[in-house]
Amino acid sequence: MQGIEIKDLKVLQDHRGWFVELFRKEFGIEKIAQVNLTVATPGMVKGNHYHLHKTEWYCVIKGRMKLVLEDIDNRKTSEITLGDDELRVVKVPPRVIHGFKNIGEGDMYLIYSTDISFEPRDTDTFPQAVIS
């Protein structure tokens, strides 16, 4: 699917814990306007919308998630599993419907950045279900 990018992340770990760089310019992230954290309880679905202008970068830092993507122009779909056992960042460009489901047994933590801040008067968010 055009515009979708997946970047495997390098986790640096020692006796103190671990460290990972999530959102780097080298990943194609030229501008970060906002960083968000959302938590989904087991079995819950979130998202199910698209943006005409906004790009988002997703990284699950705890739990497991099934991400479903559909290009609104050519209707090509893709499913990606993200989880804390294999850290990676997924770029979700404009005009791609995205919805996700917590497929783990505990809470799922998704941290994501956007290149355009949320604006209540013009949300650039259009509901469209791709996962239930």
Q: How much of the polypeptide forms β-strand, as a percent range? A: over 45%
Structural class: mainly beta
| Beta strand count | 12
For the record, the CATH architecture stands as Sandwich
Shape: globular
Give the full name of the CATH homologous superfamily: Jelly Rolls
The first-to-last residue Cα distance is 21 Å
Number of domains: 1
- Percent of residues in helical segments? under 10%
Uncertain residue segments? none
CATH topology: Jelly Rolls
What is the overall number of helices? 0
Main β-sheet, in a few words? 5 strands, antiparallel
The largest sheet has its strands arranged as 1-9-6-11-4
> Mind telling me the C-alpha Rg?
15 Å
Instruction: Write down the CATH class.
Output: Mainly Beta
